Amino acid sequence: MHTIAPELQVAAWLNTAQPLSLRQLRGKVVAVHAFQMLCPGCVSHGIPQAKTIRSNFDEQDVAVIGLHSVFEHHDAMTAKALEAFVHEYRIQFPVAIDRPSPRGAVPMTMAQYQLRGTPTLLVIDRQGRLRLNHFGRADDMQVGALIGQLLAEAPSGAEVHCDDTACSIR
Amino acid sequence: MHTIAPELQVAAWLNTAQPLSLRQLRGKVVAVHAFQMLCPGCVSHGIPQAKTIRSNFDEQDVAVIGLHSVFEHHDAMTAKALEAFVHEYRIQFPVAIDRPSPRGAVPMTMAQYQLRGTPTLLVIDRQGRLRLNHFGRADDMQVGALIGQLLAEAPSGAEVHCDDTACSIR
Amino acid sequence: MHTIAPELQVAAWLNTAQPLSLRQLRGKVVAVHAFQMLCPGCVSHGIPQAKTIRSNFDEQDVAVIGLHSVFEHHDAMTAKALEAFVHEYRIQFPVAIDRPSPRGAVPMTMAQYQLRGTPTLLVIDRQGRLRLNHFGRADDMQVGALIGQLLAEAPSGAEVHCDDTACSIR
Amino acid sequence: MHTIAPELQVAAWLNTAQPLSLRQLRGKVVAVHAFQMLCPGCVSHGIPQAKTIRSNFDEQDVAVIGLHSVFEHHDAMTAKALEAFVHEYRIQFPVAIDRPSPRGAVPMTMAQYQLRGTPTLLVIDRQGRLRLNHFGRADDMQVGALIGQLLAEAPSGAEVHCDDTACSIR
C-alpha cells in the first residue's frame, strides 16, 4: 500500500509563474528533490541528478521540483541567497521554499514527510502516491528504473475496466 | 514495430556452465553489452555500466550478457587474452565470444545486428524484441528508465485474458 | 621580474585567532584561493584543490589562505552565510573576507590584483613575489610542480654567501 | 642517500626509433610508469597520470617512459597485444617491454627495482638517482611537487663551484 503524497507546504516559488500543487500534477510522475543550498551532497550529487531527470524525461510525463527545506543555518540560506544560488547553478525547474514552522527549525513539508535530511529524493506516481523517499545518494540507474516503471503504469485516474466483451482503459 | 532480436552467434562462452540463448531467456529483459577488451570506451564506460545493470536488477528479471565482438586487432584479443581480461576486471556475468566470420574482420553477430562499433548496448524485451541498439556512451538514467519500463510490461508469452467475471494474466 | 605581492585587504578573518599578513608569511610559499561561496567552479574545483594543497604540503613550508572576494550577489554572500558555508564544506584553513570597496561591486584585494573572477589561484614565493595569478581551473599537477619548484628555492631573506673557503646560506 | 637507478632491462621498445637508456637521459628528470596492459588500476589511473606528466612538462626537462612489466597472464599480454593497446589508448611516449626472466614470472627490471606490482611510478633525478618508487595510486599534486623540486635542482653533472670572486654552475 502506498499512501497519497501530502501536498507540499510552500512559502514561495522560484522559476514558475504559478504556484504548483501535487494535485494539479496528478497524471504525471513527480520527482521532488529536497535540498539545502549549503549542503555539499546536494550540490555535488542531488542537484545534478535532478537536472539529469529533467533532461531525460519529457515535461509532459515527469515533473521535477526542487524543495528548499532549510533546517539549519537559517540566517545564511535566505530567499535572497537561494535566488542567487538558483541563478549561479543554472537551475531551471521550479523550486519551492519549504514553509518555515512556527514551532522549530524543521520546515513543514520536511516534517510532514519525515525527511531525515538533505538531499532527499521523493518520487510520486501518476496517481499521486509516494513511491520513493530516499535520503542520501541515489543511484542514477535505479532512479531511472523506478521512473520508467511508473511511466509504464496506467495514467492517473485511469482504470482498467472489463466487461463481457473487452477490457479497456478509461 | 519492433523486430525479434536474432539469436547470438557464439564461438565460446565464459562465466557460464551452459551456453545461453535469447530464446531461453524469453520472459526476462536482456541487456547485451557488445565490447572489445582493448576498446577504451568499453573499459571506462560500457563495462562499468553493464556491471551497474547487473547489480541494480534481479537476475530473475534482467539478464546481462557481455558480447566480445572483435573487429580489429584479432591477434591481440584472443580467447586467452579475454579470459585474463575478464578475470582482472572482475566481470562475473556470462560473456559470449562473437563468432568470427569466414568472410571478413567483422564477426557474425555484430554483422547481423549491424553494430556500428563498440561499446554498443542492446536491450531486448520480455518477448524477445530488440528495443535498444545504442552505439557509444549511454546515459545510466536512460538505460534504467528503459529497463524499468520493459519490466513493467507483461512477461513474455503472457496474455491478458478477460472472461465474464475477471481479467487475468496467463 | 616578479613583483612583490601586495598585502591582502581584509574585512575579517575566519579560522584564525590572529589576522595574517603576507609579510609575516615571508619565507613560506603562500597559496591564496580567491573564491565566492556561490560560484560553482569554486565549489567543484577550486576549494577541493586548495584542500589538496593543504594536505600535500607541510604548514611550515606552505600557507593556504582562502580569500572570499564577493563581486556579485552581495546580499546573498554575507559574512554570516560564509561562516555556514565554511562549516558545511569543512574548510579548515584561514579564510579572509576581501574588503568591500566604497566605490563599486569589486572588493579591494580583487581590484588590486586585477583578478578576472573566481576561482583564481595566486601563488606567492618565499620572498613574497607573485608567481602565479591563474583564473579558472588550474591543473593539480601543474600547481604541484610550481609549488615544488618554489619550495626548492632559497628561503626568504636567505642569501648564498661565499667566501674563500666555502658557500653557505645565511 | 639516494642510489643511482639501475639501467632498464628491455626486450623491445615501442614509440621510439632508438632504444633509450637512463644513462643517456642523465640531466633530465625521468618518470617511468611501470604497468601491465590488463591491470585495471594502470588503465584508469597510471596511464592517464603518465600522459599528464608528458603534457605538463617539456620534453627537454622531463622524459616519460612506459615500462610493460608483465608478471602474470603472460600469454595474454604479448608484444602484439601491447602494440594494439598502445595504439588504442593513444600512448605516444616510448614504452619499454621489461625483459622476461629465464628464472620466473617476474621480469628483470621489475625484479631489480623490487617493484611490488603495477602500477608503479619511478622518478629519477637529473643525476640519475632514484627519488620515488611508488606502488599504487600516486596523487597528481604530489607527483607534480616532486618533479618541480627535482627540476629546480642543479642539472646532472653540474657542480656549484665557488672561487674567491664568485659562485657559478659548471
Description:
The structure is a homotetramer of 170-residue chains. Chain A has a single domain (10-169), classed as Glutaredoxin, CATH 3.40.30. Chain A is globular, with a radius of gyration of 17 Å. A six-stranded mixed sheet of chain A has the order 1-4-3-2-5-6. With 170 residues, the first copy, chain A, is an alpha/beta fold. In chain A, strand 2, helix 2 and strand 3 form a beta-alpha-beta unit. Chain A is 29% helix and 24% strand. The interface between A and B is medium-sized, with 24 and 24 residues.
Entry keywords:
homotetramer; 170 residues; alpha/beta; Glutaredoxin; 6-stranded mixed sheet; 8 strands; 29% helix; disordered C terminus
In short:
The structure is a homotetramer of 170-residue chains. Chain A has 170 residues and is of the alpha/beta class.
Largest interface: A-B, 24 and 24 residues
Work out the strand percent of chain A.
15-25%
| Radius of gyration over C-alpha positions of chain A, nearest whole angstrom | 17 Å
Going by CATH, the architecture of chain A would be 3-Layer(aba) Sandwich
Provide a count of the helices of chain A: 5
